[in-house]
Amino acid sequence: MSMDAPTIKNLNLAASRPDRPRTVIDVSGVRLGGEFVVIAGPCSVESEEQTVRTAIAVKEAGAKMLRGGAFKPRTSPYAFQGLGLKGLKILDKARRETGLPVVTEVVDTRDVSWVGEYADVLQIGARNMQNFSLLREAGKSGRPILLKRGMLSTLEEWLNCAEYILAEGNGKVVLCERGIRTFETFTRNTLDLSMIPAVRSQSHLPIFVDPSHGTGVLGLVEPMCLAAIAAGADGLEVEVHVDPGSALSDKDQQLTPEAFGRLMKKALALRTFMTEMGESGGSAGASPYHPEGNAFDDWVD
Ligand code: PEP
Ligand code: MN
Predict the structure, then answer these.
(1) Predicted confidence band of residue 247 (pLDDT cuts 50, 70, 90)
(2) C-alpha R_g of the chain
(3) What is the CA(35)–ligand 2 centre distance, in A?
(4) Is the C-beta atom of 68 inside 6 A of ligand 1?
(5) From the CA of 64, how far away is ligand 2's center (Å)?
(6) Looking at residue 279, what is its pLDDT?
(7) Whose C-alpha lies nearest to ligand 1, atom 10?
(8) Which of 76, 85, 105, 181 is the most buried (most CB within 10 A)?
(9) Which of 223, 231, 241, 239 is nearest to 207 (CA)?
(10) Which ligand is nearest to the CA of 189?
(11) How far is the CA of 42 from the centre of ligand 1 (A)?
(12) 209 Cα to the center of ligand 1, angstroms
């Protein structure tokens, strides 16, 4: 069997097929899966000033979308849970100020439709990856969905969760690798970059990488962003905060705008180099993992 042939069974809609082009999702002119896209912004929306200043800074550095959590899934019920509706209104303000489309998490089935009115892309977080009711609602909403990998999930489980959304008639799904639990404790999670070519071999859906949650270690974010680009990621999600020391969540992993600017210079240069080599993801031309040519000679339905 060719290395490119899908081997995961029962993915009626999420699997690569010779007659199925790679998915490109247009979000207000930003083409997820069709161009290299960096989504950046704070872990949590904390105030208008913090969010708008961060949004302006990440846009200046080259980010194409703004992230920020208004509903935060936290380990402790006493930790900052997000500003909720107030946070969504702040994100809306930041979008109007910068023109950046907004990615924000939804954690509750009951909130999908109204949060979807504020979000350009709804994020389903690692802890909710297998919340099947939430996946179905996300499917029904028709909004673009960024589906993060569960921290204890296999590729097969992850792609089946994407299938839940697709099966509701919503084809706008982007996958995001964000690290898994292993015995390693130096890093917050173990970022599984092998999932980039693995996803590309099995599915037509765009694959993003989040090295902020994937490592939880400031100094590892930039090298893992670059490694993700080298491995063919369609884009990145990176946490950036105007004043990381004062952040109400994930203060140890959020880049300053200056550090993000330096990272972006390298990221864009590397992506250009990969494109010239013909080695970048499907979003920029030929790819060794792209299901085309003879890759499906032995593909079996
Ligand atoms: C996030 O991106 O805000 C987040 C909570 O990530 P994850 O679900 O991957 O932990
Ligand atoms: Mn975070």
Answers:
(1) very high
(2) 18
(3) 25
(4) no
(5) 19
(6) 73
(7) 126
(8) 105
(9) 231
(10) 1
(11) 11
(12) 11
- Whether the per-residue pLDDT at 273 is higher than 70: the answer is yes
Measured CA to CA, the distance from residue 31 to residue 23 in angstroms comes to 10
Q: Which residue has the higher pLDDT, 18 or 250?
A: 250
Pair of tokens at residue 301: 């339905």
Q: Give the DSSP letter string of the chain.
A: --TTS--STT-TTTB--TTSPPP-EEETTEEETTB-EEEEE-SB---HHHHHHHHHHHHHHT-SEEE-BSS---SSTTS----THHHHHHHHHHHHHH---EEEE---GGGHHHHHHH-SEEEE-GGGTT-HHHHHHHHHH---EEEEPPTT--HHHHHHHHHHHHHTT---EEEEE--B--S--SSSSB--TTHHHHHHHHBSS-EEE-HHHHH--HHHHHHHHHHHHHTT-SEEEEEB-SSGGG-SS-TTTPBPHHHHHHHHHHHHHHHHHHHHHT-S-GGGS--TTSS-GGGGTT---
In the predicted structure, residue 301 carries a pLDDT above the cut 90: no
Q: Which amino acid does the sequence have at 110?
A: R
Number of Cβ atoms within 10 Å of the Cβ of 231: 22
Distance, CA of 81 to CA of 61 (rounded, Å): 29
Q: Please report the atom of ligand 1 found closest to the CA of residue 178.
A: 9
Q: Which residue has the tokens 């109007």?
A: 96
pLDDT at 108 over 70: yes
- Using CB atoms within 10 Å of the CB of residue 34, give its burial: 0 to 12 exposed, 13 to 18 middle, 19+ buried: middle
Question: What mean pLDDT comes out for the span 208-227?
Answer: 98
pLDDT at 294 over 50: no
Q: Token digits for 116?
A: 């979807």
| Token representation of residue 255 | 């880049």
What's the token pair of residue 89?
A: 């209104």
> Using one digit for the tens of pLDDT, what is the confidence trace for 261-271?
999 999 999 99
Rounded distance, CA 269 to CA 107, Å? 36
pLDDT score of 271: 98
Phi, psi dihedrals of residue 206, rounded to the nearest 5°: -65, 145
